[in-house]
Fold this sequence. Notes:
By secondary structure, this protein is an alpha+beta fold. The chain is built from five helices and seven strands; from the N terminus they run βαβαββββααβα. Strand 3 and strand 4 form a beta hairpin.
Amino acid sequence: MNYWLAKQEPSGPRGYNFETLKKDKKTIWDGVHNNLALKHMRNMSPGDLVLFYHTGTERQAVGIMEIISKPYPNPDEDNKRFIAVDVKYKKPLKRPVTLDEMKKQKKFKDWELIRISRLSVMPVPKDIWETILKISQK
């Protein structure tokens, strides 16, 4: 199993938040155009877990979702290089973990969330995943 983080703007005209995913139970994760983020998505597999991260003014990991499909061409795009995956709601974090809290962790300094702030999909090393879950328990 692999671990990922996927960002989403929680409000605004194209916004989608974790509470909406909870109501929907599952959704398509699409709209990614960055080459590195697309490369990461191509490595996603059913059963992988994903931190749902609210961008914008919140900038925090809020919950966990699960990949339930292999990557496939995004049906809303004409270009087949743009892909999507299906995800389902898993559970909220005990409490959100903010970007500022993550930046205080020395072992996070080389992680893409800290180094490449605009990247919308990225892998989460297992030790960082476990640390985020631990921080959310406090």
